[in-house]
Design goal:
79% of the residues lie in helices and 0% in strands. The chain is an all-alpha fold.
Amino acid sequence: MPATPLSRRAHARAILTLGLPLIGGHLAQFAIGATDTLMLGWYGVEALAAGVLAHSVFFVFFIMGSGFAWAVMPLVAAEQANDGGETQVRRVTRMGLWLSTLFAALCLPVMLFSEPLLLALGQAPTVAGPAADYLAIAGWGLFPALAVMVLKSYLAALERTQVVLWTTVIAAIANALVNWLLIFGNWGFPELGVRGAALASVAVQIVSLAVLIPYAVARFPGHALFVRLWRADWEAFGQVFRLGWPIGLTNLAEVGMFSASAILVGWLGAVPLAAHGIALQVATAFFMVHMGLSNAATIRTGQALGRRDIAGLARGGQVAVGLSLGVAAVTTVIYLAFPESLVGLFLDPDEPARPEILALGVTLLALAAAFQAVDGAQVVAIGLLRGVQDMRVPMVMAALAYWGVGLPASWVAGFALGWGAAGVWLGLVLGLATAAVLLLHRYFRVTVPALRAGAAPPDAGGGAGGNQPGGLPGGDLPGAVAPAARRQG
């Protein structure tokens, strides 16, 4: 533990130093999806609806597979803070790449043959067909996309957040250019509509991977990430898997709720689905700030865990949540003050359905303003828990909040009560609020007190259970990596 605990101001400075580039990187990543939505909106309402639906489905797979990438972040951060060894950093990062590749291979068949599934979920054929075309192309991009996520997590944990930012900015610019060429058929390129947006996304992920691999090799040659990459390391594989699968399922619980909400709204027609997609894009843009703070919280708590700095875990967590609440206050004002301008950015002025989409989008943004604080709080709480590698009990809490409260409430308010898309969004508010309360309680009232009391965590990757003396309830709080593990690889 540090001789002199950091002040809240020092914690805030450290979180922002890490978090600002990560926020910028998340915003640039968001810009890739937002550009697809924006340009498809200019192309036509049905193309926009198909793009929204396809991206929602793709994102479910992407965010679940990212659990293995996000598992790399706290493992590397804790190892570095604990006089970390290059061997262990290499081992967990490599196996993060292995697991991400295997996950993408399992998901690919579903995306290649998605049209029957979309039709079975009640989507209109005019929307399901183009959405399936998008997924058949974008599915191949899941391989480089998840590998990029692993390398970004690895570099962020080593506090190389600037390269994460600039790589993503370049990718966003390239995506906008390729979209412009392939969606509309500019400069002699074929006019591909929705398929053009998918091709642009795949190309950008490949370029991002081509940038990050040489940087990682040149900047950290001692880690030798890609030397004998084919060599299996089942101990590290299990370590990353045990932490990554609950992270992935927690991600799935939240994102799945939003994707399911897109399906619910899709039952109401193309216009409500387009308004839903636009409002969700706007809300996601500001949510990226909270995501950056969450990632910074993961790194800081991972480092504190490696040092056994319990005071830093508590005080740093309080600062991270406070910063998120401050951001939420500002964005709420923006939502309520400029809703028509924000929604109007995504619509062609000559679009016949523009007035209907605009009116509904403004209503949905008002509801988004209502969940800003709880949305930010719950994602920062997840980041804090991820940093101390406490994810199995939070996974259950998230599933209960999002699927036991949020989604049923969306259906009841949207259909049983007849409130339409606005009712669906009200259910989202309730689900996020429930998650925020449960997860914050878990971190501040269970996890940190257990560590302060001298809990003896189980093994390094998620442990076998809660029956060890002094362990956390659920046994999912690993500590420093065993010395024997550092000597392998």
